[in-house]
Specification:
- By secondary structure, the protein is α+β, with helices and mostly antiparallel strands.
- It folds into two domains: about 70 residues, Glutaredoxin; about 110 residues, Glutathione S-transferase Yfyf (Class Pi), Chain A, domain 2, CATH 1.20.1050.
- The chain is about 55% helix and about 10% strand.
- The longest helix has 29 residues.
- The chain binds glutathione.
- The site of glutathione (GSH) has 14 residues, from α3 and α4.
Length: about 210
């Protein structure tokens, strides 16, 4: 059986958990705090980040985007990529935007932990978050984001939206983007989303 090294707040790990659940692939969930010295992550990923999908032979597959690609190749049904090349590009573009928002939020989160956070750095990251959200808002409609059925774009966008509420609660994105808020609420009703609601972790070691 596969093992997934995951963290409860991680939007990157949540994408993979949702994909595994949607594809009906059994896996053992190993929850860790990736920022603590005790994490097993470095044993499987030279970049020392989770999520890592550990294969039965002990090989680690890492980087959430690559894990999703790997799963799509090894477990093609049900497909999470859309059908046409144009739709696949549209879905991947949404994934790029969503991951970029997450990356900026992570940078903001740790900058805030510093004794003297840089206002310039925080403003730069906040611009990326707000710009990414505007780009997502341009792509949202009444139903699924791409191709008329649930897939990669919904996983990527849905996970970043809920993550913002966990890690960047002072940013009232639902007020700024009501159509994204409606989409998030719809997605969170899916069993794969309901089973993976992000929960903050207590980081006790010094990180920055
Ligand atoms: N681009 C990576 C980002 C993964 C990531 O940043 N994971 C965080 C947890 S949310 C982590 O493990 N950080 C530990 C570290 O950077 O040392 C992916 O999509 O998998």
């Amino acid at each position: 059986m596969y093992k997934l090294i995951s963290a409860t707040p991680s939007p990157y790990a949540r994408k993979v958990r949702i994909a595994l659940l949607e594809k009906g692939i059994p896996f053992e969930l190993q929850t860790e705090v990736p920022w603590h010295g005790t994490t097993a992550t470095p044993a499987y990923n030279p970049l020392e980040k989770l999520p890592v999908l550990v294969l039965p032979d002990g090989t680690g597959v890492y980087e959430s985007r690559f894990i999703l690609e790997w799963l799509e190749v090894k477990h093609p049904e049900p497909r999470l990529l859309p059908d046409t090349p144009e739709e696949i590009l549209a879905a991947r573009q949404i994934e790029v935007i969503a991951d970029g928002i997450c990356d900026a939020v992570v940078l903001l989160f740790f900058e805030r932990m510093r004794a003297a956070p840089s206002a310039e750095w925080m403003a730069r990251q906040r611009r990326k978050v707000e710009g990414g959200m505007r780009a997502l808002a341009e792509r949202v409609g009444e139903g699924f984001l791409v191709g008329g059925r649930f897939g990669l774009a919904d996983i990527a966008a849905g996970t970043v939206l809920r993550y913002l509420s966990v890690r960047f609660a002072e940013y009232d994105w639902p007020a700024a983007h009501p159509a994204l808020a409606a989409m998030s609420a719809r997605l969170e009703l899916r069993p794969s989303f309901a089973a993976t609601v992000p929960v903050p972790q207590n980081i006790t070691e010094k990180i920055v």
